[in-house]
Amino acid sequence: MNTTTMAPPTSSATAELHAEPTPCTYSIGKRLSLLLAVQTIIGLGVLLAVIYAATWMLFESRQQEELRGYSNVLIEVLKESDAHGGEAEMTQKLLWLSERRPGNFVQINRADGSTFYRDPLPTFDPYTAPSSELRFDIPRADGSAPLQGRLLIDCSRDAQYGQRMALLLVAATLAGGAFVAWATFWRVRCSLRPLADLAARTRAIDVRRLDQRLALSEPIEELQPLIEQFNGLMHRVERTYVQLEGFNADVAHELRTPLANLIGHTEVALSRERSAPELEEVLLSNLEELQRLAGIVNDMLFLAQADRGVKARRGAAVSLAELVNQVVEFHEAPMEEAGLAIDIEGDVQLAVDEPLFKRALSNLLGNAIRYADKDSRLCVRILREGDNGVRLWVENTGPAIEPEHLPRLFDRFFRADASRCELEKPHHGLGLSIVAAIARMHDGFAAAESEAGRTRVGFSMV
Q1: Most CB atoms within 10 A, among 23, 144, 297, 406?
Q2: Where do the HAMP domain residues begin and end (predicted)?
């Protein structure tokens, strides 16, 4: 017996099985048109139904008035006939009147229920045709029990007119609803045309045209906030994209130099036979470049974590001046080499992430030592700011930073003077970016000032 083995579903098929159903889209114009058409039909229907009911009440009122008028004539004629000629005269008068009012039907009964008179051969069927009826009493001249009269009027014409009117009103209601639906759909399409224009302009924006912004020839109050928000978003996207492109270029540039050094040293070492000490020297040089690469990668990973919103792990409140002293001790050697002294002013107790705080301060001190004038003094100031805030400044005397460079001082791989030789002052341009990231992780921000040969770089914490 043959058996068939079913193949397991592919990843695309599995994705299709588990994919959520796409919600059905709908047209705003069609939905509004339908809703307004229904509302119009309901509104017109109620209004025209009231008009029809009022018209029919007028018909009934006219019919009752006609019945009352004719019944009064009958009573007067029959009373006079009864007084002069009795029942025979009354019958003759009724026959004479029936010939002149073909749309009426008269029947008169005695008090005992027997028929006194009935119109012969009526022009309409009083039992099936639409009619209006009125009953009345005819007093007798001899004082006996009055006769009981029944008068009917043919209302076929009124009924036909009412039917035609009802059909006309229904047709008017449906036509009004259809017209409102069409007019609403056309008007909505015209009103939504700016949205279509915005959609077309949005589709035209791509990576090569991030500077494009949305605008309408005639500003629309309801759309203007959306346009402003979108343009603000595009501005942020453009700025981020430009920064990302610059960051990628800087990363490639920073990694290219140590990689080129590694390749060059290795090729030179392999070009001929080397002694063990020479190979050890090559390996030590390569190790320095590898450590530099590792430092760049680690710093980039740290900045990526900070960009994702990671917060600092704060411990118990500690003396910031004590932490500053610990970092200063670590930098004593390069400070002595540059002939620099340092002052520490102020102290605040604050809960901070000690390793991160020390790292930020170490980067600030390293930056100050790198660019401070020889045999000058550095200063670390710790200031209380507001109720819970703290600001820490590291000041040095040295070349001033141009005002246009200050806002970008904390950008990644940014150097105010690109011509400075990295061999004399080696660093890879992420130190102040890390300071800004650590400040954000402590709910603060970084800042820099430079004037009159005095530069202050620092950060705040909360």
Answers
A1: 406
A2: 192-242
